[in-house]
Amino acid sequence: xxxxxxxxxxxxxxxxxxxxxxxxxxxxxxxxxxxxxxxxxxxxxxxxxxxxxxxxxxxxxxxxxxxxxxxxxxxxxxxxxxxxxxxxxxxxxxxxxxxxxxxxxxxxxxxxxxxxxxxxxxxxxxxxxxxxxxxxxxxxxxxxxxxxxxxxxxxxxxxxxxxxxxxxxxxxxxxxxxxxxxxxxxxxxxxxxxxxxxxxxxxxxxxxxxxxxxxxxxxxxxxxxxxxxxxxxxxxxxxxxxxxxxxxxxxxxxxxxxxxxxxxxxxxxxxxxxxxxxxxxxxxxxxxxxxxxxxxxxxxxxxxxxxxxxxxxxxxxxxxxxxxxxxxxxxxxxxxxxxxxxxxxxxxxxxxxxxxxxxxxxxxxxxxxxxxxxxxxxxxxxxxxxxxxxxxxxxxxxxxxxxxxxxxxxxxxxxxxxxxxxxxxxxxxxxxxxxxxxxxxxxxxxxxxxxxxxxxxxxxxxxxxxxxxxxxxxxxxxxxxxxxxxxxxxxxxxxxxxxxxxxxxxxxxxxxxxxxxxxxxxxxxxxxxxxxxxxxxxxxxxxxxxxxxxxxxxxxxxxxxxxxxxxxxxxxxxxxxxxxxxxxxxxxxxxxxxxxxxxxxxxxxxxxxxxxxxxxxxxxxxxxxxxxxxxxxxxxxxxxxxxxxxxxxxxxxxxxxxxxxxxxxxxxxxxxxxxxxxxxxxxxxxxxxxxxxxxxxxxxxxxxxxxxxxxxxxxxxxxxxxxxxxxxxxxxxxxxxxxxxxxxxxxxxxxxxxxxxxxxxxxxxxxxxxxxxxxxxxxxxxxxxxxxxxxxxxxxxxxxxxxxxxxxxxxxxxxxxxxxxxxxxxxxxxxxxxxxxxxxxxxxxxxxxxxxxxxxxxxxxxxxxxxxxxxxxxxxxxxxxxxxx
Length: 885
Known about the structure:
alpha+beta, Immunoglobulin-like, Neutral Protease, domain 2, 5 domains, eight-stranded mixed sheet, five-stranded mixed sheet, 27 helices, 30 strands, about 40% helix, globular, Aminopeptidase, signal
């Protein structure tokens, strides 16, 4: 490992030139007719030569760009995307040495985010170079070119980064800022001496200028979409390693490089795995992961080709605070963003309709890779939780298909949701199980090789998988990606005869808020077995199927939990499964818990069914099972807001169930403790603290007080859960103590975390103090919106009302891409009917019609929460009286 910029030797080894566009064999791009565009189709860019001079101190930049382009049909104007840019000159020529024609008029449309350049003489079809000189703004939120201020060793520092997805490259470069318009990029930047500049490609040359600054030129990139371009500048350090001829790097603020070793080691392992899986080697000479202070309400990491951007909290491991779950997150983020280097960067969706091709696949790949490279984490069991996250959203009337029609920038921003990510991942998992791992990988390899450096739509992937699998993948894939919703498989009572069990399956649709909805039709791959018996596969088509299973006994449908559907058993069949719960594989225990909870809350089976399973779960059940039970019971605790007597009864039951499990786990990790046990300890401390377990709260307070003089009292593995308990149960003195710690903290990452804790107080007066603090300069512009969001966890109405009352101030500190979802997200946690009207009023006043999707979903969630409180909680109350006293 060496702390240096990538050597040109590595770059030359892989055939990249420092001075001219890279020559690569590219597959033909998808036909233009397949790609949506908001720009005239008169011209296509092929290369951008960008010269950038940032002025970080004054939050501005000057720049010029020369764009090589092909004009396809005669025109007297060119329209590009541009936002918050001011143009001083524009001219076009047919190439070097050819006559130059200055633009006769420049028209900027701020609403459409375009700039149109008019020319007196018509431009005939052919090759041209368009040169533009302009200035722009360096923002404070993660959109376009932006700055992040942070403390480093007691000194105030400022670093610059870019975030261009989905449509913000236009804030730094006037461009055809749409994924279909791929081009090569040659970037140079004039920077202060002593700072490090980072981009997608290695530094090709550095020239010292007469005024003391430096001109840094980067090698030319391969052909790629504008949203993948990256530039970073600051007082950085870089650690490197080489894997398969590629130089891997992690870039951090000075002094934090030691926290990046796990991320660097993980990158080596993941790159080796992906080079093998995809069958196409990573094509760039280097791959950096740039860790930045602060946070965003929109994203935690971004897959810029060769220069992944990640916020520090998602990738660095500070030994003072890092837990097992932080280690897992660091690996997951690296695996996700590195998967994008193929799915998204090398092969890119033609338009945002198919965003899931990027995000769903990267999410699936991260899970698959984590399971393979860290089997000790038992990550395969997380598949059920991923599916549940998708179904919670997908079962509401406001859901949308995985492949959805995107017409505007606002709609593209809202497409980054659990349907795109988690449902996309879950459907891929189901389809891979249906065709088999080998056939699936063969299809993926063919897809990547065929469309490298090009653009695709979903059917391009299905076509290659179907060829490899010789199964009707496309029809099933269309059912699950082109229409919304969650299939419901109803299972009849089993009939056992001659050692075989026969069941009848009927397909409906699971909905949380449309009780009489006519179900859509899916072709559903199903795996079933009698518990402990061999599995049998079938496809439910036309709404019905019959299956014969070897053996007799309790019948389990969706065995292995690869299917994206809910399973509803008859009371008799469910009772048989509940009786076999302890002998079922852990993943199927999680599936049964999840289905029983969601179906019970929707009124399709007794709401108490989950409580029966939780009550009878053995104390030595897998850690993941107890994490699921603890999570549901803690969420149920929140549902009892305003019902103190009923909440107290639930909390007594929760403590009675979880305390014996925590007694087995203990406060201190055992020798060679399994990773899932460490995660369970965190979960149990938080859950028991939330439901008022006096012993846990007292011990958390004791350890917190002792930590002032005894660093072993609150080790890294316990620090976050202990502080969570302390913060949520804080009185005025404790809150002020946490506040003082936040102000004094030197680490930017830990400082941000401590400020967030100030918003966790259950005490309403302290929550208000946190809100007031958020609008001061003290927490920092990226921490402030997170602090308000933290308050909304316990006080959604208070947080929403505060944010709307201070809309102008709050709007300025929220990412541009997050604004249409941030405010609804605050109020969406409410169970007060009045919040529905507030959200509707907010949307009418502040959001265009095409940006109200998240508001509608927040309203649907509130309506469902109200229904649960009125119709389902009484069933839970009755069960608690009978079973918990």
